[in-house]
Amino acid sequence: MNESTPKQLNSPLDPDVMYQALEEKIRNCGHPMDLGRIRAAYDMAVLAHSGQKRKDGSPYVTHCVAAADISVDLGLDEDSIIAALLHDVIEDTPLTHADIAKQFGSAVADIVEGVTKLTRVQYTSKEEEQMENLRKMLMAMAKDIRVILIKLADRMHNMRTMAYQTPEKQRAKSLETMEVYAPIAHRLGMQQAKWELEDLSLQYLDPAGYKDITDWLSARMPELESFMSAMEQKIQARLKAERIDASIFCRIKHVYSIYRKMYSQKLPLNGIFDLCAFRVIVDSIPDCYNVLGVIHDMFKPVPGRFKDYISTPKPNMYQSLHTTVIGTEGIPFEVQIRTWEMHRTAEYGVAAHWKYKMGDGAGAVRQGDEDKFAWVRRLLESQQESDASDFFHDLKIDMFADEVFVFSPKGDVINLPAGATPIDFAYNIHSDVGNRMVGAKVNGRIVTFDYTLQNGDIVEIRTSKSAPGPSRDWLNIVKSGSARTKIKQWFKKEKREENVIRGREMLEDELKHNELALEDVLIDEITAPILKRLSFAHVDDLYAAIGYGGVTASRVANRMRDELKALNAEKKSVLDKVSAAAERREEKAKKEGKAVHGILVEGLDNCLVKFSRCCTPVPGDSIIGFITRGQGVSIHRTDCPNYLQRSHDPESEGRWIHVGWAREITDVYVTSITIASKDRTGLVMDIASALNSLNAKVRSLSAREISGLALTVVSLEVHDLSELRVIMNKLSSIPSVTSVTRNGN
Ligand code: MN
Questions:
Q1: Which of 23, 91, 341, 639 is catalytic?
Q2: How far, in Å, is the centroid of ligand 1 from the Cα of 17?
Q3: Most exposed: 182, 447, 559, 605, by fewest CB within 10 Å?
């Protein structure tokens, strides 16, 4: 039996007769349904479409009944059949979603509305790449899979009755069916529907090619039929002997599959051998493999043609064993082996879910059942066509959530990120369209620029040569990166003057936050490295870039602040080095013979210097000079009582001057110390031997006794303070010595 032969139309049709047949079919479909409710839908459709006629002269409602009839064949549920009956009322009659919802519930109304949306999608582009977008769009638009299935039923009936349309419409609808609806049926695993849609389309797309094949097939039919019948009997007899309970069906492959083979393999018609396909349906998976063994035992398999879709199902859930074998007289034929369950899935695809798996309840899809269809969506989203020989392009619909598909007025499908606006659309068409955009219309109505595009929207952009160009706000509205880039490019190019001013202001503001002024940082040392790094020739380019948003002001300001910091640090280090060098020069000058008795007098070279007798300073002491009248500078220790007394004397004002010790001193200095101790015998001897042990050059030593206390004054030569301190320490350690002090204190 040939399963793909289209049903013939008898016109004119009586809707009531057709409806009776539909009711009969529903009664026999194995699922109890509320016929009263379905009848009410029919009545509503009859009333709504009254007066409308189809091209063949039949009442319009016959189409609705036919679509419902196909929906029953597809195994759809009660709500779907009601929706199929009403599928054109929103589009073609005054009835609304609310009217349907009131009588049949919002689920039915939603389905009808979904079908209406798909119907409104206009296909005018014929480009192959557009077709894939169209398929994606339809799948994305149909939030409920039943919407797609009813749309398929609708299209199936329209294709079956296409004979009454004009040749132009026949071709257009057939192409659409071939490229959009048949692949969708395939993708949903509905082989039967796919074959029928393909053959119906081919009939109008290549009438001559279609006729060649059907003529050739009918000429060979007696031969093919006797061959098939002989093979069927042979296989059945053998399976019986093997005690395998199997049903065998055979068919001649559908016209389009032969046509495709002719073109894809460039074969003449009589070069195509495997026209016959056998299907063996059994009860269990082990039986499938048993049958395969039997077939391969009976006939010689064609190498490379065995495929195990049971262990590895196709993405659309299809499962079967496929093999091609050589029959008697060398005629090859294909054998598909599957279980009944696999068969139902293959025939009805996702619809099998309703038909056989949803139980025998009311058949209605109840509230909350939507979740049960989530798996269908996931399937659609995850599937990847593994059969590379498949004629059709993959129906990639894995990006539903992220994409939106809209039409240009010419019918091109434009694919944009979800949430895209008319601005995204305009820039997708061309930069000029975006830049000159002054308004947008969606489905004929004016919309705001931030309107969120919906699947299937027809978008029209109004442009003007005197358009002011994009607004900066658009950058916050657009969703696509390419639109954003193009808008920025426009600002970069078209608004340089404005950008320079704006950018400069923005940078100034930003610098202010860093407590900097533009003048602080507008020096070559700071700007040059920044311009070089960003590849700008001039600082105006930098302002312009900030102005149009190519570079952020904060980034530049931070960079400038860092450069300034680095520059200041460098300056300080240079200054430090300069002052260090100056100090070294000064010290060097001090060394070079300007000193008298190891004393340097500020501003006076080679002046007469003498050391005061009151405090006898030695190198290392902090000293100060006093300009005497006619006797040069007398040097005092800064802790000298004379100095401390006279430093505030108004008479001596201006006569105290800074003096210092030269670095290298060769002179010896005379100073005097007083040793206080309890008076005892041998004290002077101890002092003298201590001084001797240190090689101290003693100029004079005198001792006197005041009420039991011995005071010994020693005058001696030392090189500096540290030598003196060693000596004083030594003297302090002499028994009974209570203090050693320098004179003048
Ligand atoms: Mn319709």
A1: 91
A2: 19
A3: 605
How far is it, in rounded angstroms, from Cα 434 to Cα 453? 16
Residue 54 CA, ligand 1 centroid: distance in Å: 11
Between CA 385 and CA 382 the distance in angstroms is 10
Of 439 and 679, more confident: 439
Q: What is the mean pLDDT of the chain?
A: 81
Q: What are the φ/ψ torsions at residue 258 (nearest 5 degrees)? A: -70, -45
C-alpha radius of gyration, the chain, whole number: 54
Q: Given this structure, which CATH class describes domain 15-204?
A: mainly alpha
Q: Is the overall model pTM greater than 0.90, yes or no?
A: no
DSSP 5-67: PPPPP-SS--HHHHHHHHHHHHHTSSS---HHHHHHHHHHHHHHTTT-B-TTSSBTHHHHHHH
Q: Is 424 a catalytic residue?
A: no
* CA of residue 441 to ligand 1 center, whole Å: 27
Given this structure, which CATH class describes domain 401-493? alpha beta
Task: Please tell me the distance from the alpha carbon of residue 615 to that of residue 29, in angstroms, as a whole number.
Answer: 132
| Nearest-angstrom CA–CA distance, 290 and 310 | 13
pLDDT tens digits, one per residue of 423-448? 999 999 898 899 999 999 998 899 99
Q: Cα–Cα distance between 313 and 293 in angstroms, integer? A: 20
* Cα 84 from chain centroid (whole Å): 41
pLDDT tens digits, one per residue of 206-251: 999 999 999 998 998 888 888 889 989 999 999 999 999 999 998 8
**Taking the domains of the chain in order of start, what are their residue ranges?**
15-204, 210-356, 401-493, 495-567, 593-661, 669-742
Tokens 């009438």 -> residue? 207
Task: Domain 669-742: give its CATH code.
Answer: 3.30.70.260
Q: How far is the CA of 510 from the centre of ligand 1 (A)?
A: 63
The highest-level CATH class for domain 210-356 is: alpha beta
Q: Which pair of tokens denotes residue 649?
A: 């004397």
Could you tell me the distance, in angstroms and rounded to a whole number, from the CA of residue 676 to the centre of ligand 1? Answer: 131
The active-site residue out of 3, 92, 381, 385 is 92
